[in-house]
Give the backbone structure.
Amino acid sequence: MSEDDEGNEKKTQGSNPKKLKLVTFTGAAGLLGLAVSFAIFAFNSHKQKSKKKCLPGCDSVCINLSAKEILDLADEIISKSTRVHDAVALVPLNKLSYENVVLPLAELEARLLPLIQCCVVPKMISPLDNVRKASAEAEMKIDAHLLSCREREDVYRVIRIYAAKGESIAPDAKCYLQCLVRDFEDNGLNLTTTKREEVGRLKDEIDELSSRYVQNLNEDSSCLFFTEAELAGLPVEFLQSLDKTQSKEFKLTLESSHVAAILELCKIAKTRKTVAMAYGKRCGDANIPVLQKLVQSRHRLARLLGYAHFADYALDHRMSKTSTTVIRFLEGISSSLTDLAIREFSILKDLKRKEEGELPFGVEDLLYYIKRVEELQFDLDFGDIRQYFPVSLVLSGIFKICQDLFGIKIEEVTETDVWYYDVQAFAVFDSGSGKLLGYFYLDMFTREGKFSHSCVVSLQNNALFSNGACQIPVALLIAQFSKDGSGEALPLGFSEVVNLFHEFGHLVQHICNRASFARFSGLRVDPDFREIPSQLLENWQCYESFTLKLISGYRQDITKPLVDEVCKTLKRWRYSFSALKSLQEILYCLFDQRIYSDDDVDFGQLIRSLHPKVMVGLPVVEGTNPASCFPRAVIGSEATCYSRLWSEVFAADIFASQFGDGHPNLYMGLQFRDKVLAQGGGKEAMELLTSFLGREPSTQAYIESRTKYGL
């Protein structure tokens, strides 16, 4: 998801691929330059035939292609990429150089990314079913091709021999070369044929086991039946949404939305426990053996690739580096929050005793009593607060904070084609020099067929080419806001405001990343760092500099003291029971880390040991085992579940030490933009943060923020 640019209009126009004066190479490298040039020219010709109006200077970014254009472009991408790799493979071994081995692949990657995104992003956003289907088909074809490129022995041989020469090249170029080598060696190309085949077999097995685990959960049809009395506390609308039996019992599935409603709102302790037990036992007989085999297969794969355990492999190129560091990080925060968590737990137990007598307090009671205490302690009507956050006002407020904080100027671009009538496009400029930094699209509202989650997607990454031309970043923010029956945007809930701040953090990161290689620009940074800018920007959503401005601007009849109180209450609410909530997350992060850093782990014994230790004495729900229903540890975040918390902790350190008063500080914002965001993924993220802070990042600010605003 992200990029760099040169910025002034002349150089932006100069990046038009048809006008590129590629470096002249001889032999195979000359063929390579021709292949890249032809690939881009072919796309632009295709775009002109379709008469698409793209963003100025970004002719390769055209998301509203037809189904046929998408499939044709996918074929062109594959064809031209193959020619480039063929050309690299043909370079004589006695004539290898940076210019004919590394540079061609780097520039190909930079130029093909926006073309690939033109093919694959429409499946997420196009209003046309045939376009979404064509996009999904194109994605499968392109993914298969890219995988095959990383399995080419002839290309790997050339890259490996060139790397072994130890030629003096720029630090970011050296980092890119190391990434190229790793691309191939992660597929076992540095191993014997027998071991390489085993790597392929294990990867296939891991894919099959992961899919089976998730499929088992998706296909689980378990359900429970309750009387209306057993569901006391649930809203009438929720009950009306449930099926009923002939005996007038309500049928409750184990979908997460149903389970969350019960655990948060149901007044009956027995019902909460029954649901929690059933939810925690899902797919136990089927999935626990699957996860056991999956963990073993991942360990075997890691050992073939030179690591002791899978966690070592997964963490080797992240900020954390080692499983020991991750476990120390998690246990350190857990220990620091324990006293606060005990105080929070005491409040919950006291309230349960008042309302339910001497029934023992279980994990299944946490959500319900947290919500009850919040209702009693915070005078917040979130329905009323919503009226203060119309979408247009929130956007203008976020734009203002980003401009004041990072020294940028955001202007709407109206003369460009979009894929749906309410999509908007914006240009981002450096407010000091007026230099164009990049563009972004906002696709803010739900509609049929659209991707159902909020995210930021890279459409084009920043890149600097050998002829001096620059490619500027372009990003897309997808949100899921609602409209009323007349098509007017509904005001945002507070959680939606927080989420929008978070995603804008990704946008700023994408636009401000000035790395010369597309591999390191945009959001292609250390995964442990990727969420830090977003977590950092979230801090402004409940500070007076934002909330006060919006509320007082929208409702002139409200007095300032009342507005101040709303801001303070929102801040306290946001951090309420944060220690217990953090410990719950740490529990699962530790479980994930332990199973991937040790051999032959007994999942049941591990969770029975960890749970009371982390959760201030609370035992695991009887008979449950998260190993059967913990998909994050299976696909997507295996051995890396800690990463979200890692980002949040270090974002808290940055905010407290550099922006502690909550007001946008342009000087520090520019320092963060230039010293951290602009550097991209080609430099060690921990070194960047240490340089910016003047010391190593600390967990102390995160702990103190929880203590300061805690109950």
Confidence is low (pLDDT under 50) at residues 1-49, 554-562. Residues 385-576 form a domain with the Collagenase (Catalytic Domain) fold (CATH 3.40.390.10).
